[in-house]
């Protein structure tokens, strides 16, 4: 599957088979994640890879009881380290670039998972402190996204998108 096909056909997956995800697949996903762009190439992120069922259950509790998180064979928690951007770019780095950088990383994860025949869902509805406690992060590391990954039980068609003319504004030359 080429990159454009992966982008255009990816959907959120919340139902997974019981099949495990190999260490090689996890490594491929991690390599794709850290290939994401980041402001000043500072890479102000940390990635937590969770296979432990007890920790996954804690993530479910901290994420508004979204049970599908615990059903995935592997869960990634993507975190930002604001001070790593802030030291270089001040408050803009701390409050914006570190979020943008981890968002790009999360998108790389989802597209790569789809290209590998896997599926996942970007979960942003969670209590930061509960997730940080579950994965034992230091206070300087802030969770941004939880992404359960597994083999989808079924594939959905991509949802419709707004027409380009509704969202694109061409600035005249």
Describe what is shown at a glance.
The chain is built from seven helices and four strands.
Could you walk me through the main structural features you see in this protein, from its secondary elements to its overall organization?
With 173 residues, the protein is an alpha+beta fold. It has a single domain (13-154), classed as NADH Oxidase (3-Layer(aba) Sandwich), CATH 3.40.109.10. The chain has helices at residues 3-9, 23-34, 53-62, 68-71, 82-115, 128-135, 164-167; strands at 45-50, 74-80, 119-120, 142-150. The protein has a four-stranded antiparallel sheet. Helix 1 (3-9) packs across helix 5 (82-115) and helix 3 runs antiparallel to helix 6 (128-135). The radius of gyration is 17 Å and the shape is globular. The mean pLDDT is 97.
Tag the structure with descriptive keywords.
globular; 173 residues; NADH Oxidase; four-stranded antiparallel sheet
Judged by helices, strands and strand pairing, the structural class is alpha+beta
User: For the record, what CATH class applies?
Assistant: Alpha Beta
- The 3D shape can be described as globular
Overall mean confidence score, pLDDT: 97
Bin the helical content: 40-55%
Topology:
Blueprint: H1 3-9, H2 23-34, E1 45-50, H3 53-62, H4 68-71, E2 74-80, H5 82-115, E3 119-120, H6 128-135, E4 142-150, H7 164-167
Antiparallel strand pairs: 1-2, 2-4, 3-4
Helix pairs in contact: 1-5, 2-5, 3-6
